[in-house]
Amino acid sequence: MSVFGKIKRLPLQDAGLNNLVAIPYLLTLTEPVHTVLRMGLRQVEIINVQYGLSNTYTINGITATGYEFMYGKKPSGFISHAVSVLQHALEHDPEGALKSIYEPSNATFNISPSVDPSSFSNVSMESPEQFAMAFTNYEGIYELGKPYLPAFIASLTDVDEATKQFWPTLGTYSFVHNFVILEKIQEAGAEAVKSRFGNIWDTEGMDALYKDGWLYALDMTVFDSIAKPADNSSGRYTHATFTLLRQDAQSKALEPLAIWVSGENVDGRARIYTRKTATSGAWLYALQAAKSSLTVCGIFLRHVYLWHVLAATMQMTMDNTLPKDHPVYQMLAPQSKYTIALDESMLLLWNAGKPATSINTPLEYLTLSNAFAKDRGYFDDDPKVAMERLGLREQDFTQNEPWDLYVTIKDSLEIWDATEKYVNVCVDTIYSDDSAVAGDEGLKAWIAASSAVDEGNIRGLEQLESKAALKRLLTSLLYRVIAHGGTNMVFATFLVHLFAPNYPICLQRRDIPESSAELDTKQLLTYLPNAETIGLITSFYFAFAFAKPNEPFIPQEGVEANLFFPSGMSDPRNRALVDYRNALAQFINARAVLPNITGQWPLNVES
Ligand SMILES: [Fe+2]
């Protein structure tokens, strides 16, 4: 238990957010101030990376560097300003600062960006290649990204290419978004899909596709929980969407065939687009609307909620119940730092620290998460459990090697299996048999606190009656911590994400074109992230990829340095830890596009 006593949680149930797991916070001599300061320092660390945005573009008749389009003529210093405002608030009225998370009207501090009058940041791109302005020349990223550009550009100009690339882009480069998300339409869900799409179910021959198992969906309707039919002060929108995809029986390729876009942000009337009947411009728009909801869901729900928030809740209850000399506490402690203060700081610094989404306030984020968390159990998103529920089978996504048509699953399973191996050795070393687990009072207290509505509020946990049950619990927790670190890596995924329309963080216009609307490329691009939005999301990605983690998972001194358990390599847990580190190094080296980046994968959830 912490020297400061029990870790507390935000009183979110008082705000009616009953599905959410507990969100812990720290108000100690060191946190969250230290985390907030570290977030500010990361922005300083990436200044050189931003200065590498030096290629020039001409937009609206203005010729300027990518840096100038995205950030104006001079560095904004906005985040440093926000950090010092927040630091001051935390030192003088910490309770008031915390309250601002869930009662925005009670905000005791105000962070508002200063506008640089020399900025052109509200300009839309005029042609697709201009989105390459996010490719910095730092570390040769521009040159590494260049070979991808023709395909990226085609995804905005060529309707066949855009349709073809939609699933491979989402299914391949989304491990960091925890995108185990595609679902086969099964009996339980078929009626709801039919009624959502009306007569399109028949005109597109969906009944046969569904019955033969070739119909899939990407359900992003959760965004209607925070939709508002009014102008968003940020000028950014995420529409709820629902995409149906058809799988080809021979090639197993998946292509979107119909997209539903909610009108809740506009006039309440949904629009439905099909590949066959929509104009090219409207179909390209619909693909982008779907991708923007998928991107926001990936970052804020599947990554932040499932990986940061749930991990922090379990770490809180562990800290509040297990004695520090408990072997499970000792096993998890090295990887349980930073998360709680990070989540807290993210909510406190919402206006400055988050990427440029349409989610305006921390309370809006919590409301969205509350809708997402409804009926979700702790284990439900473990990759193998989720795959079973979603009807995802290896043979359906395998062409040449397992899961090569859904690489995110392949990546997830590789990290899951390495984590499971390590956890299994730890549990087998700590506990001689099932009864030793069942009789462990500390573990009982941890599970009770995690499940209690007025403590962890986590659903779906089970009593730990066996070693197998404990292994399952710990693998699920450590997987979240470890998988999260993938965010820091310069893999092909990083290059793909830097080109904003591949994973658009928002739409820049509220209106929804009709399926019959004629939109040329320039008009289409007015719906996509503008220079300011691209700048914000780019800095967000840079802070992961180019700022050093507090502690790396693989020590710089070598895989046998900084072992977690006493008695060196004679302890099987340490040997398993070394194997775990080697497995991760192999995972990194198979994907890295820059040399020597194994030290970039963090040990904790820390950024
Ligand atoms: Fe994260």
Protein described:
- With 607 residues, this protein is an alpha+beta fold.
- It has helices at 33-45, 47-51, 66-71, 78-92, 94-102, 141-145, 149-157, 159-172, 187-197, 200-203, 206-212, 280-321, 327-332, 339-348, 350-353, 362-373, 383-390, 407-430, 434-438, 441-451, 467-484, 492-498, 521-525, 531-546, 572-589, and strands at residues 8-9, 24-25, 56-59, 62-65, 183-184, 215-220, 241-247, 254-261, 271-274.
- A five-stranded antiparallel β-sheet has the order 5-6-7-8-9. A two-stranded antiparallel sheet has the order 1-2.
- Strand 3 and strand 4 (62-65) form a beta hairpin.
- Helix 1 (33-45) packs antiparallel against helix 4 (78-92), helix 8 runs parallel beside helix 12 and helix 18 (407-430) runs antiparallel to helix 25 (572-589).
User: What structural class is derived from the secondary structure elements?
Assistant: alpha+beta
Please tally the helical runs, counting DSSP H or I stretches of 4 or more residues. Answer: 25
Distance between the termini: 24 Å
Oligomerization category of the chains in this entry = single chain
In total, how many beta strands? 9
Low-confidence stretches: none
- The helical percent reads 40-55%
Features of this protein?
single chain, 607 residues, alpha+beta, five-stranded antiparallel beta sheet, two-stranded antiparallel ribbon, 25 helices, 9 strands, binds fe (ii) ion
Quick summary of this structure?
The protein is an alpha+beta fold and 607 residues long.
